[in-house]
């Protein structure tokens, strides 16, 4: 099956966001604690209401701190507000953004026999994060390129914000041997490896100016929409050749 580049980009952004959210689950407590805590860990409040209260406190403190700084007063020590507001902001946007994407996709696929918004999907995906993401993963290959582009934009922005807050780089490997991009000639091809399924991996060119020039572009993508960032699926002839090193020489990867 041939996928449109917008569908590939959307699926890659979804996989990347899911991986960033699982990373956040692991490091969340460490990120929240930006100051020494007034109580033992089990005594700290972690409810949404408590976090929101901390958030307000920190924002209020920030204003006070600025006033004090201008007056030359240095902070005396730890503050009681341990929450990174950027983390709260991005977490607050996770659910609504993915829900919005699900609704857009479900609306477009309302006549699709399996992916229309039926009781099957309502049970799986109505309120659960993983369910919504599973629905999107199943449905994105079936949506129009225009909608895939919109969903990609929303998910990619959120993924970048979240990764910025938690300090997580993009899940990318430079291809071993540094093969040249067939479109721009630079040796900046990278495998996007967020998906747990290697078949869903894609290769992109890290050169921001490397965009498709349309049907006559030398990129060898199956579909060549003009000005779209190049992306090759794992089963494309180009990637089969380029990724051969990743699958056959893991010891060389670790050595490098
Ligand atoms: Zn390129
Ligand atoms: Zn191209």
Topology summary:
Layout lengths: L4 H28 L15 H23 L14 H24 L10 H7 L3 H11 L5 H22 L5 E3 L14 E4 L9 E4 L25 E3 L3 H12 L1 H6 L1
Antiparallel strand pairs: 1-2, 2-3, 3-4
The chain binds zinc ion (2 copies).
Question: What does this protein look like?
Answer:
The protein is mostly helical. It folds into 3 domains: 5-27 and 85-170, no CATH class; 46-83; 173-255, no CATH class. It has 8 helices and 4 strands. It has helices at 5-32, 48-70, 85-108, 119-125, 129-139, 145-166, 237-248, 250-255, and strands at 172-174, 189-192, 202-205, 231-233. A 4-stranded antiparallel beta sheet has the order 1-2-3-4, sandwiched between helices. Helix 1 (5-32) packs parallel to helix 6 (145-166). It starts with a helix and ends with a helix. One zinc ion (ZN) is lined by residues 183, 212-213, 217, 219, 221, 224, 230.
Keywords:
single chain; 256 residues; mainly alpha; 3 domains; four-stranded antiparallel beta sheet; 8 helices; globular; disordered C terminus; binds zinc ion
């Amino acid at each position: 099956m041939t996928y449109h580049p917008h569908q590939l980009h959307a699926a890659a952004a979804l996989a990347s966001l899911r991986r960033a959210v699982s990373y956040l689950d692991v490091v969340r407590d460490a990120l929240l604690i930006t100051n020494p805590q007034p109580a033992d860990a089990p005594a700290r409040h972690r409810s949404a209401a408590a976090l929101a209260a901390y958030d307000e406190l920190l924002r209020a403190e920030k204003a006070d701190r600025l006033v004090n700084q201008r007056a030359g007063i240095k902070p005396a020590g730890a503050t009681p507000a341990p929450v990174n507001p950027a983390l709260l902001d991005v977490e607050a946007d996770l659910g609504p953004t993915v829900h919005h994407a699900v609704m857009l996709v479900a609306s477009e696929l309302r006549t699709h026999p399996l992916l229309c918004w039926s009781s099957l999907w309502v049970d799986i995906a109505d309120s659960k994060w993983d369910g919504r993401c599973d629905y999107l993963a199943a449905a994105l290959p079936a949506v129009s390129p225009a909608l895939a582009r919109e969903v990609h934009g929303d998910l990619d922005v959120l993924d970048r914000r979240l990764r910025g807050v938690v300090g997580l780089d993009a899940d990318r490997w430079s291809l071993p041997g540094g093969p040249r991009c067939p479109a721009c000639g630079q040796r900046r091809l990278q495998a996007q490896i967020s998906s747990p399924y290697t078949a869903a991996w894609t290769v992109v060119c890290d050169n921001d100016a490397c965009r498709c020039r349309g049907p006559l572009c030398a990129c060898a993508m199956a579909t060549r929409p003009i000005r779209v960032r190049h992306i090759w699926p794992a089963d494309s002839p180009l990637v089969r050749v380029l990724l051969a090193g990743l699958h056959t020489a893991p010891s060389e990867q670790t050595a490098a």
